[in-house]
Amino acid sequence: MIPSVLPTYSRAPLSFVKGEGSWLIEADGRRFLDLGAGIAVNALGHANPALVKALSDQAQNLWHTSNLYQIPNQQALADKLVEHTFADTVFFTNSGTESCELAVKMARKYWYEKGAPDKTDIITFEGSFHGRSSAGIAAAGSEKMTKGFGPLLPGFIHLPWGDLDALKAAITDTVGAILVEPVQGEGGIRPMDDSDLKALRALCDDHDLLLILDEVQCGMGRTGRLFAHEWAGITPDIMMVAKGIGGGFPLGAVLATEKAASGMSAGSHGSTYGGNPLGCAVGSAVMDEMTAEGFLDEVNRKAGLMRQKLEGLVDAHPEVFEEVRGAGLMLGLKCKAVNADVVKAGYDNMLLTVPAADNVIRLLPPLTISDEEIGEATTRLDAAAKAVENT
Questions:
Q1: Mean pLDDT for the chain?
Q2: What is the DSSP code string of 254-282?
Q3: Alpha-carbon dihedral angle through residues 391, 334, 133, 258, given to the nearest 10 degrees
């Protein structure tokens, strides 16, 4: 008999009932150090006081009105995002998946309105993950994502990761945009070199293409800048955001330049819940915390400390770990042992990590993790590695 919850997840036998900062507390009272942060969602930790206050204060006044009316909280958050990014305009969604849907629509509508309706193709890359909607799985293109869900949405050209020659050869008159994650998350914590991101921007400029960045996982302070592309000194035309922007409250956004958004007009897109008063109150609090003086400097300092400790862990367990990869507090341990075994050994040591492709485990702690907690995480990872070695 099918369970009442559709069985699409392979869940660990853990049931958390409370969160405090970098910790999750199981129903039986055990305290787990959380290096997953809800897959990069709880960027400011669990039950962050500033977010709890923002949510509680707003909940006592107004939850939802719909986008039939002006929403002051939405305007306030949009203004903050525009102030701190490349963007001229913002559309709010509930998730990264929804942000992907709009990014694809926006790019195609741009070319349609410019009188080039055939420029519908979007170049994407092997190992990518852009959500599980029809557009998202078609953009990723992997068999794991698409098998059994055909016919797929057409108009995506899939290329090898980091192959600029293949990219140049793929640009034809039907290509309108390039879509890429500056750091692949599900794909195994694979950062794109700054030089490659600059080359992508240059190709888009030379061929009059739109550059779409998926910063759903690598954005919102995760790499030590508000958004990962800032390290390369470039800007996109369209950017997908979610996860950390709500700090745990379902919230996403599409940020765009005036040019890229020029085809979108009243009625061309919409959302019942997107940008509602509750979500935007929390999102504004997240932005205030992340743009406060010194916050990102601390993320970078802690990232350096954590990477140093992980490098030592790799040296100590060469049969379990191969290398450390990633940027900021978006780190991955490439495993020689089976990554799922390392994740499970982490559970046994009350440590939470997240598996990814390419036999990697993801380490995506709250950006507020303390030095002491980084040390404790290393100790527990060391114990997990020893357990894997002894099996």
A1: 97
A2: EEE-TTTTTT--TTS---SSTT-HHHHHH
A3: 160
Point out which residues pair with 330 in neighbouring strands.
Answer: 327
The reported pLDDT for the residue numbered 206 is 97
User: What are the tens digits of pLDDT across the range 194-239?
Assistant: 999 999 999 999 999 999 999 999 999 999 999 999 999 999 999 9
Q: Which of 255, 181, 179 is nearest to 223 (CA)?
A: 181
Q: Is the peptide bond before 151 cis (omega within 30 degrees of 0)?
A: yes
129 and 149 in a single domain? The answer is yes
* pLDDT tens figures, 255-301: 999 999 999 999 999 999 999 999 999 999 999 999 999 999 999 99
Same domain, 286 and 297: no
Residue 227's domain spans which residues?
50-290
Say yes or no: 132 and 55 in one domain.
yes
Residue 162 has pLDDT above 90, yes or no: no
Q: 41 lies in a domain?
A: no
Reported pTM: 0.97
Residue in this structure with the two tokens 């692949």, named with its chain if needed: 184
The total of other beta-carbon atoms located within 10 Å of residue 293's CB is 6
Torsion of CA 26, 27, 28, 32, to 10 degrees: 0
Inter-axis angle of helices 295-316 and 277-290, to 10 degrees?
80
| CA R_g for the chain | 21
- Between the CA of residue 123 and those of 128, 157, 285, 365, 375, what are the distances in Å? 11, 5, 35, 31, 41
Same domain, 260 and 302: no
CA atoms within 13 A on the CB side of 362: 27
CA distance 85 to 68: 27
Residue 346 lies in a domain: yes
